[in-house]
Specification:
Largest sheet of chain A: 7 strands, parallel
CATH architecture of chain A: Alpha-Beta Barrel
Oligomer: homodimer
Distance between the termini of chain A: 29 Å
Radius of gyration of chain A: 19 Å
Number of helices of chain A: 17
Low-confidence stretches of chain A: none
Mean pLDDT of chain A: 96
Structural class of chain A: alpha/beta
CATH topology of chain A: TIM Barrel
Helix content of chain A: 40-55%
CATH class of chain A: Alpha Beta
Largest interface: A-B, 37 and 37 residues
Order of helices and strands of chain A: HHHHHEHEEHHHEHHHEHEHEHEHEH
Number of domains of chain A: 1
């Protein structure tokens, strides 16, 4: 398997994740296969429901490759969703126009939790593995492929709320009033996420990332108790599997800037940073225990090319001359961004970081 | 004026803000006069538009006193809104049902900014000062009265976006592409906010607080350049006025946990903390330079009385035996909270912190 990774033509991203020397800082962009690309919108329009795009390996492959064909990005990321697991558990996932994800059967009671199935990823989530295999084939090892999952807390929050939320009152009610129930759900999800990521690894992804979108809604002790501990379990379970010990793992908690030290101690290889964190002080706090991924304000892509360049230079400067930096936005790219500005960004990162 | 503050019967809150000994930790609750109270909903229903409530001193006074009459809270806060300034500037503020604030005339161009009037708070915002005077009269010095304003950045964000936003793309476009324009707007707002808070002080408030709801949407350097520097200007301008040097100032940046040290250096007396920050490590980082206000997760009020008590005990423990703690939620109380749970909270804070 290590040999397989060696065959990847542009391996800057993998090297940076290992804090090894690189010729320049690698970059990929969260949600790089997304609505800001006209070619994506075209496929999306034809696909009908959003989940059709995820569930049809040919389409998922097509949109995964679109940004790689257009920009000299250093990694591809599987086109999928962080809610594939609860969808496969039969909770009735729908994406409502302008409202985001919605589950017709939210998980609220002990009975709901007990009834959740244990997934076999190659079965119920076989479409994801098929997409990975197809993308790997079509990618021709140009760049590494990133697989991913939502974190147990983030997936669990959606399952309990039944949708996105501002206050997360339902999931917090469960966490605060019946923590044993919350932990039972999160434990189940930690197993599901581990199995899911291991299956993605077996199918061929070169890196995995865990998106903890909602961990930052918790207080510091609750973040550690309900989110971080389960991400750590996932990391450990995956690391027990020596066949995949060469596959780097990236953890990203949005609004997790205060907890970077704890995140770095999970055994992950890299920590994703949102844009509010100063990457220089993040580096100072964490040292070279892990690589850092981030962290341009996604809204900076609305600015002029000169401003984008200056912002890139600032982040590269703040990170300093160490190895172990993967450039990215601090959150997903927004639909209104001009693709030309993405070109400017990718070029600026490579050019300004050239050794 | 100092003597006037001396006459306040329950002055625990003022003492805590000065880091002086108190018999127990004072508590007030952000948005304590709000929809979770049936008596508030009654007045609100009769008032028609939300701004009528703010603009009718008798009604503002009535709802300000409701939580004080119901709970043994240690401070009252003026019932008003953080958008009174742009409303008085003629931007056409409306509160749309379920959508929050909306301006019919957002500020987007140099011309828009140049045309913004300089407010005389006793004129255009006279209803606020009338409310302060009436509340002070009706409060009979039972507890101190808090006045407040939005921060220049937060008010400016609403003015440029025309409403709340997820991405803040319009205001960030202005900040990144035409920073000189952004700074001109923020400079104007810093003057307006200073004048507004000075007028509230002259009308009788005992403490002022600045709510920086959207500073946390900025990167670290942008937070310092576009939000913090203008809050600092406001603090300095107010502190130049020796008549009010005894009136404590509290700054609160939501999602500002990474910047506490900088906030504490503005010259404010206290820093408000959202619930994601560990108040123990906040205290360690800041020392006793300022008092700290916070920081229970607002969703904890959905939990059972026993859980609420345990969460209160945890925060009191984390803060430790120092003086200079004002208990509060980490964000406004939510409409769905049972008022009985607020009773439990207030009682727990007083009882568990009793010296």
């Amino acid at each position: 398997m290590v040999e397989k990774q060696m065959t990847i033509k542009n391996d800057r991203f993998l090297k940076a994740l290992r804090r090894e020397p690189v010729d320049c800082t690698p970059i990929w962009i969260m949600r790089q296969a997304g609505r800001y690309l006209p070619e994506y919108r075209e496929v999306r329009a034809k696909a009908g429901k959003f989940m059709n795009l995820c569930k049809t390996p040919e389409l998922a492959c097509q949109v995964t490759l679109q940004p790689i064909d257009r920009f000299p990005l250093d990694a591809a990321i599987l086109f999928s969703d962080i809610l594939t697991i609860p969808d496969a558990m039969g909770l009735g996932l729908e994406f409502l126009e302008g409202e985001g994800p919605h589950f017709s059967k939210p998980v609220r009671t002990e009975e709901d939790i007990v009834q959740l199935p244990t997934l076999d990823p190659e079965q119920e989530l076989g479409y994801v593995m098929d997409a990975v295999r197809l993308i790997k084939k079509e990618l021709h090892d140009r760049v590494p492929l990133i697989g991913f999952s939502g974190s147990p807390w983030t997936i669990g929050s959606y399952m309990v709320e039944g949708s996105g939320s501002k206050s997360f009152s339902n999931v917090k009610k469960m966490a605060f009033n019946t923590p044993e129930l919350m932990h039972r759900l999160l434990q189940h999800l930690a197993h599901s996420v581990s199995d899911y990521l291991l299956a993605q690894m077996a199918a061929g992804v070169d890196v995995v990332m865990i998106f903890d979108t909602w961990g930052g809604m918790l207080s510091t002790p609750d973040y550690h108790a309900f989110s971080l501990v389960y991400m750590q379990q996932v990391v450990r379970k995956i690391r027990e599997n020596t066949a995949f010990s060469h596959i780097p793992m990236v953890l990203f908690t949005k609004n997790g800037g205060m907890w970077l030290e704890s995140i770095a101690l999970t055994g992950c290889d890299a920590v994703g940073l949102d844009w509010t964190i100063d990457i220089g002080s993040a580096r100072e706090r964490i040292g070279d225990k892990v690589a850092l991924q981030g962290n341009l304000d996604p809204a900076m892509l609305y600015a002029s090319p000169q401003k984008i360049e200056a912002a890139v230079a600032d982040i590269l400067n703040r990170f300093g001359s160490h190895y172990g930096h993967v450039f990215n936005l601090g959150h997903g790219i927004e639909p209104g961004i001009d693709p030309e500005h993405v070109s400017v960004l990718v070029d600026a990162v490579h050019r300004l970081s050239r050794r």
